[in-house]
Amino acid sequence: MADKCDLCLLGLIILSSLLTGTSGVDETRAFISSGENVSLSCNKTLSDCKSTTWTYNSFGHSEAVELITLGIKKKNSERHERLSLESDCSLNIKNVTGEDYGLYSCQKYVNDKQQGPDARVSLHVLHVSVSPSSSSSSSSSSSSSQTEISPGRSVTLSCQLYSYAGLSCDNWVRSRGFKLLWVNQTGVDLKTDSRYQILYSSDHCIITLTTTLLNEDDNREWRCQLTQGNQLKTSVRYTVKYSDTADTASETGVSVTAGSLYRGRKDSKHPEEEMPTILE
Predict the structure, then answer these.
(1) What is the pLDDT of residues 129-169, one digit of tens each?
(2) Burial letters for 18-49: b for 16+ Cβ neighbours within 10 Å, e otherwise?
(3) C-alpha span between 87 and 65 (Å, rounded)
């Protein structure tokens, strides 16, 4: 009986290691909405950053790209203008985009020899684009801060989680208890309202909301949320704003605001931080 219990315990340890991705490597997961700033921790005790190197690897690609080499920012990086180092050698990324998702690794070198294992952070980005189905001025998809549409027209909001490329989104999300959903300003799942058509693509981690904009939608808010169990990881908010000087036939602006991390709170306020660290 004791042998069987030992085997069960060993199996649980192996399964936990596979699910968390921490088999001998210091790795965390970070969740952020596009347009926000994020700080990725190196999780190493460093006297200064001259021994620190940060590399980036897009999921699905084997070759890593150096972003910071021994404390110096690489100017040939596509995102170098948005990168900076904190005093503790954490990597700051400003105005995160969907293309920033991937695996970031922090390494410490002394006399050209790496000290200890990599500190890895897998960055997952939640991004929403707006697609008015019939608009002469904005017929294409847009992720800008405002999209011109009109009451009576259909609009589609596409919310995508940029995550592990090459793997089944459905398997990855479900195995860890993640969920994408659209909610109203009170937090009610919009799947329960027949006015909204909610479609989920498990292949690409995309959930879309389609509805016809009404005149009474002035100041109405919709939010795309990424949750894990009862914990909110990150969200993006959309608020419909009508023009103050226009009549009911005027154009409508949809403002796009990146959601901030609630850190487990369930209040309705959205505190914003200049450089939030969103680590799991």
Answers:
(1) 888 644 333 333 333 344 456 788 788 999 999 986 556 67
(2) eeeeeeeebbbbbbbbbbbbbbbbbbbebeeb
(3) 22
- HSE toward the beta carbon, residue 206, CA cutoff 13 A: 13
Buried b (16+ CB within 10 A) or exposed e, 213-226: beeebeeeebbbbb
Q: Residues with Cβ < 8 Å from 183, sequence gap 6 or more?
A: 189, 190, 222, 223, 225
The SS3 assignment for 211 reads: strand
Please provide the DSSP assignment of 42-61 as one string.
Answer: --S--S-STTEEEEEE-TT-
Instruction: Give yes or no for residue 69 having a pLDDT over 80.
Output: yes
d(CA 63, CA 105): 13
Beta bridge partners of 122: 29, 103
Q: What is the pLDDT of residues 103-123, one digit of tens each?
A: 999 999 988 889 889 999 999
Cα 272 from Cα 275, distance rounded (Å): 9
Residue 83 pLDDT? 95
